[in-house]
């Protein structure tokens, strides 16, 4: 697998929703592609309603991006455990994703407005 990483600012405004709640809206979302993996969209924390996100004890490590911390999305209808993640101190190659949060595309909806 070619694991080269590319990051680009997405044009337009993007919104992320879960369980009917809008978690955030941003005109500064980033798209990270890594080899043949599906693209992942990262939202600036400043553009998210962080009150919906509770820190999780889960951590993981990626040799290309660094150590990830996870978030549980808390909604009136329930919780989506570890459905968001962030790299608080990413490796230099992906420094642009610092201060951003990505979400599990199978459990949230991300769309361009």
UniProtKB/TrEMBL annotation:
Q: Cite the InterPro entries for this sequence.
A: DUF427 (IPR007361), DUF427_sf (IPR038694)
Query: What are the residue boundaries of the DUF427 domain, all occurrences included?
Result: 16-105
What Pfam families does the record point to?
Answer: NTP_transf_9
Q: Which domain of life is it from?
A: Bacteria
Q: Which PANTHER family match?
A: BLR5716 PROTEIN, DUF427 DOMAIN PROTEIN (AFU_ORTHOLOGUE AFUA_3G02220)
How is this protein named in the record?
Answer: DUF427 domain-containing protein
């Amino acid at each position: 697998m070619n694991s080269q990483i590319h990051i680009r600012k997405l044009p337009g405004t993007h919104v992320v929703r879960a369980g009917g709640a809008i978690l955030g809206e941003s005109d500064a979302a980033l798209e990270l592609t890594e080899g043949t993996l599906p693209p992942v969209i990262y939202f600036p924390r400043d553009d998210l309603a962080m009150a919906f996100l509770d820190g999780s004890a889960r951590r993981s490590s990626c040799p290309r991006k660094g150590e990830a911390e996870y978030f549980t999305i808390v909604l009136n209808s329930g919780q989506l455990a570890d459905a968001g993640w962030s790299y608080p101190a990413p490796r230099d190659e992906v420094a642009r994703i610092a201060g951003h949060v990505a979400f599990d595309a199978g459990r949230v909806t991300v769309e361009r407005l």
